[in-house]
Structures are given as structure tokens and as C-alpha cells.
Design a protein that fits this description.
The complex is a heterodimer of chains A (88) and B (360). Chain A contains two helices and five strands. In chain A, a hairpin with a 2-residue loop joins strand 1 and strand 2. In chain A, 32% of the residues lie in helices and 35% in strands. Chain A has a five-stranded antiparallel sheet with strand order 3-2-1-4-5. About 7% of the residues of chain A have low confidence. The longest helix of chain A is centred in the C-terminal third of the chain and has 16 residues. By secondary structure, chain A is an alpha+beta fold. Chain B is of the alpha/beta class and 360 residues long. Chain B has two domains: 111 residues, 3-Layer(aba) Sandwich (Rossmann fold), CATH 3.40.50; 148 residues, Rossmann fold. Chain B is built from 15 helices and eleven strands. In chain B, strands 2-1-7-8-9 form a five-stranded parallel sheet. In chain B, strand 5, helix 7 and strand 6 form a beta-alpha-beta unit. In chain B, helix 1 packs parallel to helix 11 and helix 7 crosses helix 12. Classes of the chains: A alpha+beta (88), B alpha/beta (360). At the A-B interface, strand 1, strand 4, strand 5, helix 1 and helix 2 of A face helix 1, helix 6, helix 7, helix 9 and helix 11 of B. Bound molecules: iron/sulfur cluster. The site of iron/sulfur cluster (SF4) has 14 residues of chain B, from helix 14. Iron/sulfur cluster binds next to helix 14 of chain B.
Chain lengths: 88, 360
């Protein structure tokens, strides 16, 4: 879908002169501008209309999922998440 | 990365939905409003509304960038195109109606209108054809504005200028709260805009308006979880700002992008399609970049336009007042193939999303 609103996560494979080669998965590689972020090879970025607009945190992604699972087990885990969010 | 972390796990979704049912009020209906076309897409595409109890209503606010671009600014782009300037725009801006014509109509009349994927494509085009004048029709929210700013600050070729038509999300959210009979009980704030402006941009909503506000990502689980977090706040009788999308959104947001935007733009009052003028809601190139401002360069002065064609209800769709199926033209006179209003044009438009998901 070639829409401007969509921001897609991609993995940085190569960095060169303010540009990066990123992998959208399934072998779809594209050059994007990384002037708006500080990013290194191996990190994940959110790509929007040809520009990386943010670096994604893999740890946070895993953490969110872990907390969701916990939440479903026990209510107390949400408290932890909310505190974490508020302290952030 | 996100795929294999399964933010779509149906089993988890079912269980979050159970939590939602437990937490939702039993009698009074609560209204949760999101302001992002991609959220509407997730909700509609995955049928999330069907998982919600009857006391939880999720409505779509003005979250589609092409839908909120006023006709007067499309008219400016059309006027430039018909004057012989090459107009470069994002794909979904092509068919957005102006007062009389869209850019696609202008193209049918022989104008040179080209679709680009990014602002830098427009720069490359202008470099390749130095004897033609190019204008980049820069629409979109805080997600696309930094890239426009970046290309302006890089000093583009002299034959390229920018028709800046960017809009800011928080002022639109404030507008919604001012509409007396809308009665919103909570906000799902847009994840991708938030990656740029950060959580802090929404502080005003819980503080000044006592509105539970949760920034959320775009997977079905993200949205369900945000709904749950809001319901929990409502139940507790509190209003907090929470972040469901911690993997992408920080308190400060993308400071680099914010600084670049501040160097390129001033924030000014501006028109939104069907919503009128909102204070401090649009961006204008700073005085020092006037050479790249298409409005200055070509002296275009269009101040008013016809935003809503007769019979179209886009102005009500964009504030979540009615659902697309309540518009008498929906899927009759107005279809994705032959759209009447802007909400049926933009890929992120509520009418278009409902039409594509065949909601009747
Ligand atoms: S269905 Fe068409 S005419 Fe009706 S509100 Fe939506 S875009 Fe406008």
C-alpha cells in the first residue's frame, strides 16, 4: 500500500552518508533518509514516506508483549506497567 | 520484528476483549475517540468493534491528512498545475476534491502532475529537469512535516518550491473537546505522530480537560489494549496520560525532528476541511525560507473554497459525529471508484475504510 500515512518498521542493514539501506522483511530492501534519527546497523527504525522518523526499541516491544501476557494472568502487572509509563 | 512478536495473536486479543468487557460500564455508554486513519483501518479491518460491549463506542476523529486538507489549498495546487508548473504530490492527494477540480482533473486537462513517494523524490525530479518549475504539495501531519522541513533546510534546487499544507494533531483534538454534544470520554492518541511529538504534547488533555489519553500503536492488540487502559481510567475516575506504544514513543519524542521543524516553520492558525479555522494548527515556512514558498514565489492568493459538496457529510464524519453508513450517499452516489467527498478519497479516510471493508 503506497500511502503516505503508513509508517513501517524496518531493520537497518547499511548506513552511508545520511542514508541507510533498510530491510522491510521478506527481502524488500530500500534506501531511506536517516537524517532525522541517530541509528546504527542492526537497529530497527520506523520508516515514513522515505524517511526514518524514529528508532524502535526491540526490548520495549518484547517487554510490552510480556506485560500483556502477565496482565491477562494477574491484574497487578498492569499497575507495574502504568508506573513504568508514568515514570518514563 | 513486530510480526514474529505477534501483536496480532487472536488468542491474546480475545482475552484482552474479555478484560474490556469486565471493565466497561454496565449501563452508561462511553465514547472513545481516536484521531488517526491507521487506527480506523486497524479497528475496521480486524472487526474490533464487534469485540466491544455495547457500552463502549469507538469513534473516528479527523485523522486522515488528505481528508482535512481544505479545498482552498487543493485549489492552489490545481491553479499552479494549470499554470504549467509541475506539481509533485503523494498518491492519495491526487484525487482529493478542490472546489471545482482535483489534481487528477488538472492532469486530465494536460497539466503535469506527478506522484512521489517522498519529498526527496520531488527534489530529485527538480534536479533532473532544471528548465521546469516544480512545486511539492506538502500535505500531512507531524509525521511528514519533518521531512518537508529537512528538504527546505537543505536548500533545494531553485526550480523547486513547496506548497506547505501541513496540519498539527493536538489542536484538532482540542477542537473535538469543544464540540459540546460529542461527549468524548477518552482519547486514543495517534502512535506515529507521537513518535515525533512525544507523549508530552498531550499533557494538556488529562490536565486541563480531565480526559484519559493513551498513545497507541497500530496492531489490533495495541488498539484493544489502549481501549482497556482508557476504560480502566474511567472506572477509577481518573484521567492520566499513558503510553501503550513504548516501543516507538518516548516522553520527549524525536527532538531532532522537532528542532528541524522549528527551524523551517512557524505555527499559524489555519483552515481544516469542513472544520473551519483552528488556532495554531498549521505550519508556514519562515520568512527566511520565503524563496521556497510556492505561495510567495507564484503569488497565489486563494483564501476560500468549497470544502463539502452538496449532500456529503464529511464535516460530520471527520468529528466522529456520524458513521459513514449514516450518510445517504454512502455506497450509492459515493463509492471508492467515484468518490464525492474527501473521506471517500483518502486511503485513511473513514468512508473509504468502511467501504473497503464492505460495511453496510
Ligand atoms: S460517504 Fe461520501 S458523500 Fe458521504 S460523507 Fe463519506 S465521502 Fe462524503
Amino acid at each position: 500500500m503506497k500511502t503516505m500515512c503508513l509508517a513501517i518498521p524496518a531493520k537497518v542493514v547499511k548506513v552511508q552518508n545520511g542514508k541507510a539501506l533498510v530491510d522491510f522483511g521478506e527481502g524488500v530492501l530500500r534506501e531511506v533518509d536517516i537524517s532525522l534519527v541517530d541509528v546504527e546497523v542492526g537497529e530497527y527504525v520506523l520508516v515514513h514516506a522515505g524517511y526514518a522518523i524514529q528508532v524502535l526499541s526491540r526490548e520495549e516491544a518484547e517487554e510490552t508483549l510480556r506485560l500483556w501476557r502477565e496482565l491477562l494472568e494477574a491484574e497487578s502487572s498492569l499497575e507495574t506497567k502504568q508506573q513504568r509509563v508514568q515514570n518514563a | 520484528m513486530l510480526e514474529h512478536l505477534r501483536f496480532r495473536n487472536p488468542d491474546l486479543a480475545k482475552r484482552v476483549a474479555e478484560k474490556i468487557r469486565e471493565t466497561a460500564p454496565k449501563k452508561d455508554v462511553v465514547k472513545i475517540c481516536h484521531v488517526c486513519g491507521t487506527h480506523e483501518w486497524t479497528i475496521t479491518h480486524y472487526g474490533l468493534r464487534s469485540l466491544l460491549p455495547s457500552t463502549v463506542e469507538v469513534i473516528a476523529g479527523p485523522g486522515c491528512p488528505v481528508c482535512v486538507t481544505p479545498a482552498s489549498e487543493v485549489d492552489e495546487a490545481v491553479a499552479l498545475a494549470l499554470k504549467g508548473v509541475v506539481v509533485a504530490c503523494f498518491g492519495d492527494a491526487l484525487r482529493v476534491p478542490g472546489s471545482e477540480k482535483s489534481l487528477l482533473d488538472a492532469r486530465a486537462e494536460g497539466a503535469d502532475v506527478r506522484v512521489v513517494y517522498s519529498a526527496m523524490d520531488a527534489v530529485h525530479m527538480a534536479e533532473k529537469e532544471p528548465d521546469k518549475e516544480f512545486v511539492f504539495f506538502a500535505i500531512g501531519f507531524e509525521t511528514t512535516a519533518p521531512s518537508t522541513a529537512l528538504e527546505v533546510l537543505r536548500k533545494p534546487p531553485r526550480n523547486l518550491s513547496f506548497l506547505v499544507s501541513h496540519r498539527l494533531i493536538p489542536p484538532a483534538m482540542e477542537l473535538l473537546l469543544g464540540i459540546g454534544d460529542l461527549n468524548i470520554d477518552g482519547f486514543i492518541a495517534p502512535g506515529h505522530v507521537s513518535t515525533v511529538i512525544g507523549l508530552k504534547a498531550y499533557e494538556v488533555f488529562p490536565k486541563a480537560y480531565r480526559m484519559p489519553t493513551v498513545v497507541a500503536g497500530f496492531e489490533p492488540l495495541d488498539v484493544l489494549f489502549a481501549i482497556y487502559m482508557i476504560l480502566k481510567q474511567i472506572k477509577e475516575g481518573t484521567a492520566r496520560l499513558e503510553n501503550e506504544y513504548v516501543r516507538a514513543v518516548s516522553w520527549e519524542g524525536n527532538i531532532k525532528a522537532q528542532e528541524i521543524m522549528q527551524r523551517a516553520f512557524d505555527t499559524v492558525d489555519g483552515q481544516w476541511r469542513g472544520l473551519g479555522e483552528l488556532p495554531s494548527s498549521t505550519l508556514k515556512l519562515k520568512e527566511e525560507h520565503a524563496a521556497f514558498d510556492a505561495r510567495e514565489k507564484f503569488g497565489i492568493r486563494i483564501t476560500s473554497g468549497r470544502d463539502i459538496p452538496p449532500g456529503c457529510q464529511c464535516h460530520l464524519i471527520m468529528i466522529g459525529k456520524i458513521r459513514p453508513t449514516e450518510c445517504p450517499l454512502f455506497m450509492k452516489a459515493c463509492t471508492p471508484q467515484k468518490p464525492v467527498g474527501a473521506c471517500m478519497v483518502g486511503i485513511e479516510g473513514t468512508c473509504r475504510i468502511w467501504a473497503k471493508s464492505q460495511i453496510k
